[in-house]
């Protein structure tokens, strides 16, 4: 009601009207004083209506209050109630919302609701609007939603399909429910019951909430929030539609045949017969030639470049450019440097391999291995041999004879029971006959020889037996027996977890088949756990021995026994040098035999002839000193021939040494096995 005057009172009546005419008026309203709005809070919103009613949600719209109050409206608060509970209102929004529309979610299908809205400004919350009409939450059968996509021409669009229409029905598009759609940025096309809103050049300016409703039934509506993520995704899809790619099944592949030919190929999806191919090598278009053949199978989408013999001049980049109608694609193979050299070498090898197999050849080239017995096995295998085939081995140019060759299996092997430094070198095997020759080499040097030593060390360590104890005259040894020991295998000893360094009483040692730690002058403190660690270059192998009280007592007792035997052996009477086995002298000459003796205490000395002590001091002269004794036979005769002995003894033992005397006449020859005297 407009054109009222401030300060005047007004009353109102309402008439009902229909086709038959106007009815009687209502009673007059209470007098209404027209005055300016003086409340600080805003007035109440009005014209509440519903859009997009679904099974569990709806969109509520309203009009801005006519009166803002003393400050600008900053938002709106919404309330909800069940249709039959008008006195029981529940706040829907914890904070004011800024728009004049709101999507209410979480409703129960089939239930009826009413809503009201209050405006908010700096002074507070204004009066609530009149309650909305009751609305039942339920999706109408056949209801459609706005869909977003890209059309066949690559344009981004929003599409909506109506459920029911009449001749006068129109699709009404808007932005944010109220803003008109820009005709400069969009185009609307309607075909039967389908409407499409197409963006001419979509950008961030076009983002936002788009709505569509039917003119004959505003509740038949839908909305879509066009986001930045949608824009990015659909721009990519739009580019793909406008610039379609021929799909690749396989990018460039390189293959080498057994005969040494090389094939470069790629495959796409099936193409039409009008598809076009352009091949570029190092910025130069190429076609089939005697050196390389090009195949293009459109049905299979297969592109091939075939080289009978690849050469250095074929190194470079190969680009395949394909076009099939509006679709196109290109793929580049960078065939250079190491990749090209490896393929070229493999192709050359395969061609050479075909040639060498015309005669006897190596089916398996020279290789080496180490068996469980720590033996080095160098082995190869030949095939396509005949009775005339010759097989030879060489090491550093010198022919090796002691190899084993089984003609049935073609296996040839060289077994080295114990590896030393002399096994390092260059090994070469040659098989040949009238049809051809093949050669295999094995360089067992530098890193390869170190690998051999490492593997040998591993096998040697694995062959190591459990630790045992052995008593000696000096103390006892804790040892492990191996197949054989090499210096590459690093050994360390530990006692009670602490490393044993070489010291006065502990001395590590090794031989070809044993490693040990020797404990000198053992004491009670030497009881405990001993550990042997063997490092083969990669792994550590361990052996353990627990020297218990009982084992220590037994070892100590044996050590003391052996020590006494050693003392007795050292001090016993013995002849240390001086007498040959057989001596010869001419009859009539004098013979002097001297020998050296040892022993503590000084031994007794006896000279014997034919096992009887010599007492005659006339023909025989005997001298005795502390470390030396001699016997002189004066003017020997034929009767003096025979066995002479020296016998020495003391409290620790005795020893006898024999010498045979042969007397010959003048003019005769002495025995060949005798030492001539005189």
From TrEMBL:
<dbReference type="InterPro" id="IPR003961">
    <property type="entry name" value="FN3_dom"/>
</dbReference>
<dbReference type="InterPro" id="IPR007110">
    <property type="entry name" value="Ig-like_dom"/>
</dbReference>
<keyword id="KW-0677">Repeat</keyword>
<dbReference type="InterPro" id="IPR036179">
    <property type="entry name" value="Ig-like_dom_sf"/>
</dbReference>
<dbReference type="Pfam" id="PF00041">
    <property type="entry name" value="fn3"/>
</dbReference>
<dbReference type="InterPro" id="IPR050964">
    <property type="entry name" value="Striated_Muscle_Regulatory"/>
</dbReference>
<keyword id="KW-0393">Immunoglobulin domain</keyword>
<feature type="domain" description="Fibronectin type-III">
    <location>
        <begin position="44"/>
        <end position="142"/>
    </location>
</feature>
<dbReference type="InterPro" id="IPR036116">
    <property type="entry name" value="FN3_sf"/>
</dbReference>
<dbReference type="InterPro" id="IPR013098">
    <property type="entry name" value="Ig_I-set"/>
</dbReference>
<dbReference type="InterPro" id="IPR013783">
    <property type="entry name" value="Ig-like_fold"/>
</dbReference>
<protein>
    <recommendedName>
        <fullName>Myomesin-3</fullName>
    </recommendedName>
</protein>
<feature type="domain" description="Fibronectin type-III">
    <location>
        <begin position="1"/>
        <end position="37"/>
    </location>
</feature>
<feature type="domain" description="Ig-like">
    <location>
        <begin position="360"/>
        <end position="440"/>
    </location>
</feature>
<feature type="domain" description="Ig-like">
    <location>
        <begin position="587"/>
        <end position="662"/>
    </location>
</feature>
<dbReference type="Pfam" id="PF07679">
    <property type="entry name" value="I-set"/>
</dbReference>
<dbReference type="InterPro" id="IPR003599">
    <property type="entry name" value="Ig_sub"/>
</dbReference>
<dbReference type="InterPro" id="IPR003598">
    <property type="entry name" value="Ig_sub2"/>
</dbReference>
């Amino acid at each position: 009601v407009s054109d009222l005057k401030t300060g005047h009172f007004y009353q109102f009546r309402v008439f009902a009207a229909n086709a038959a005419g106007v009815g009687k008026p209502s009673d007059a309203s209470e007098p209404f004083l027209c005055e300016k709005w003086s409340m600080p809070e805003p007035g109440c919103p009005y014209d509440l209506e519903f859009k997009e009613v679904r099974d569990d949600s709806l969109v509520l719209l309203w009009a801005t209050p006519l009166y803002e109050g003393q400050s600008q409206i900053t938002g709106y608060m919404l309330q909800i109630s069940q249709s039959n509970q008008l006195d029981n209102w529940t706040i829907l929004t914890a904070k004011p919302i800024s728009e004049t529309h709101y999507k209410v979610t979480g409703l129960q299908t089939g239930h009826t609701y009413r809503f009201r809205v209050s405006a908010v400004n700096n002074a507070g919350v204004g009066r609530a609007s009149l309650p909305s009409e009751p609305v039942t939450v339920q999706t109408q059968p056949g209801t459609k939603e706005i869909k977003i996509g890209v059309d066949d021409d690559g344009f981004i669009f929003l599409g909506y399909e109506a459920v029911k229409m009449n001749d006068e029905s129109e699709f009404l598009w808007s932005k944010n429910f109220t803003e008109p759609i820009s005709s400069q940025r969009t185009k609307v096309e309607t075909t039967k019951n389908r409407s499409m809103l197409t963006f001419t050049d979509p950008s961030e300016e076009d983002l936002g909430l788009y709505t569509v409703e039917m003119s004959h039934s505003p509740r038949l509506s839908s909305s879509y929030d066009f986001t930045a993520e949608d824009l990015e995704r659909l721009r990519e899809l739009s580019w793909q539609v406008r610039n379609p790619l021929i799909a690749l099944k396989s990018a460039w592949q390189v293959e080498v045949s057994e005969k040494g030919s090389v094939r470069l190929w790629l495959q796409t999806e099936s193409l039409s017969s009008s598809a076009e191919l352009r091949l570029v090598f190092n910025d130069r278009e190429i076609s089939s030639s005697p050196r390389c053949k090009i195949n293009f199978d459109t049905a299979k989408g297969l592109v091939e470049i075939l080289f009978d013999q690849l050469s250095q001049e074929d190194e470079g980049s190969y680009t395949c450019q394909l076009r099939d109608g509006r679709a196109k694609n290109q793929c580049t193979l960078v065939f250079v440097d190491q990749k090209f050299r490896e393929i070229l070498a493999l192709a050359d090898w395969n061609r050479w391999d075909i040639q060498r197999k015309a005669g006897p050849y190596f089916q398996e080239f020279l290789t080496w291995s180490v068996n469980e017995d720590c033996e080095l096995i160098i082995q190869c295998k030949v095939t396509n041999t005949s009775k005339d085939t010759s097989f030879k081995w060489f090491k550093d140019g010198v022919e090796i004879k002691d190899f084993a060759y089984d003609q049935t299996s073609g296996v040839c092997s060289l077994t080295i029971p114990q590896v030393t430094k002399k096994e390092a070198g260059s090994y070469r095997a040659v098989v040949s006959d009238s049809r051809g020759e093949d050669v295999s080499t094995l360089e067992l040097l530098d890193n390869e020889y170190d690998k051999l030593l490492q593997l040998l060390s591993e096998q040697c360590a694995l062959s190591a037996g459990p630790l045992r104890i052995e008593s000696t005259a000096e103390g006892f040894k804790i040892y492990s027996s191996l197949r054989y020991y090499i210096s590459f295998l690093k050994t360390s000893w530990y006692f009670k977890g602490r490393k044993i360094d070489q010291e006065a009483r502990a001395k590590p040692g090794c031989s070809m088949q044993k490693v040990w730690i020797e404990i000198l002058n053992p004491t009670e403190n030497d009881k405990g756990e001993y550990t042997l660690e063997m490092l083969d270059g990669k792994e550590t192998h361990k052996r353990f021995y627990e020297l218990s009280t009982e084992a220590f007592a037994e070892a100590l007792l044996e050590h003391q026994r052996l020590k006494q035997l050693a003392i007795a052996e050292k001090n016993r009477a013995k002849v240390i040098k001086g007498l040959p086995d057989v001596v010869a002298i001419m009859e009539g000459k004098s013979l002097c035999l001297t020998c050296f003796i040892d022993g503590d205490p000084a031994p007794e000395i006896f000279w014997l002839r034919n096992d009887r002590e010599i007492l005659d001091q006339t023909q025989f002269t005997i001298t005795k000193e502390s470390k030396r004794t001699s016997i002189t036979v004066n003017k020997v005769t034929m009767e003096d021939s025979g066995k002479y002995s020296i016998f020495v003894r003391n409290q620790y033992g005795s020893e006898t040494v024999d010498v045979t005397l042969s007397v010959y006449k003048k003019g005769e020859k002495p025995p060949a096995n005798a030492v001539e005297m005189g």
